[in-house]
Write a structure and sequence with these properties.
Number of domains: 2
Structural class: mainly alpha
Strand content: under 5%
Largest sheet: none
CATH superfamily of the largest domain: E3 ubiquitin-protein ligase SopA
Helix content: 40-55%
Radius of gyration: 23 Å
Distance between the termini: 65 Å
Number of helices: 8
Oligomer: single chain
Shape: elongated
Number of strands: 0
Length: 257
């Protein structure tokens, strides 16, 4: 009897550990998981956490409210699909086709978007924080700047620098992005390039007659030109917004509001 109870308990545990929860239209869901071919399917609110849907045909599918967190959607066809409010946290969307898709309010945090096609996709209200490979055409320089500051606050200076790079690529005279990138570089002990960024920021702020920006850049330059000591930057406790005192909080003034 004890063995039977134990076996039942183990079986139920295995069911609970199954990352793909059966939800949405059962027939459509079964079709998708069996064939990876489900265009125009109703998969609203489906639980597809960690599902392997690489190369799947989901064109025009209804995926409203579905949970596709950490799913593999590499090369998937999602053209014209409705992904409003869909959970895609950590999903792999490399080379996915999302042209004309609706992603209003979708959770795209930490997704992989390299080579993803997003022409005419509606991403209003989507959360792209921490995503990598974001196509330049779907975000403004100010968006990349904001994501960069958020990443740096969390201690991810390398990712922050990538975001600031993208902001500058779109807007070469974005003085605030140069300054913020310099701060992130300083915190990973790349003082030489940090100084270059700070000097570029100061020059641009001067051209733009931005008094506060000029003063902030000059404070940072002075910091960089003082004798270096290892203790000044504690990478074990990243504090992007306050590790150089008033300079960090001043960066918030260059965020879009």
């Amino acid at each position: 009897m004890k063995i039977q109870i134990l076996a039942t308990g183990i079986f139920l545990t295995i069911l609970n550990l199954n990352p793909i929860a059966q939800a949405g239209n059962p027939e459509n869901l079964r079709q998708l998981l069996t064939t990876k071919n489900c265009p125009q399917c109703d998969l609203s609110n489906a639980g597809l956490v960690m599902a392997d849907l690489s190369g799947a045909n989901l064109s025009g599918a209804n995926l409203v409210g579905a949970n596709l967190s950490r799913a593999n959607l590499t090369g998937a066809d999602l053209r014209g699909a409705n992904l409003s409010g869909t959970g895609l946290f950590g999903a792999n969307l490399n080379s996915a086709k999302l042209s004309g898709a609706t992603l209003i309010g979708a959770d795209l945090r930490n997704t992989y978007l390299f080579n993803a096609e997003l022409t005419s996709a509606n991403i209003n209200g989507a959360n792209l924080q921490g995503a990598t490979g974001i196509p330049a055409q779907i975000a403004k320089p100010e968006d990349f700047y904001a994501w960069g500051v958020a990443a740096a606050q969390k201690g991810n200076q390398e990712q922050a620098i990538e975001y600031f790079d993208q902001a500058i690529a779109q807007k070469p005279d974005y003085a605030g992005a140069y300054l913020a990138r310099g701060v992130a570089r300083y915190q990973i002990l790349d003082r030489q390039r940090a100084l270059q960024d700070a000097q570029t920021a100061e020059k641009l702020f001067q051209e733009q007659s931005n008094t506060e920006g000029i003063q902030t850049a000059q404070i940072f330059i002075l910091e960089l030109q003082t004798p270096y000591t290892e203790a000044k930057v504690d990478r074990g406790k990243p504090k992007f917004m306050d590790f150089v005192g008033s300079l960090g909080s001043a960066l918030l003034n260059f965020l879009p509001f």
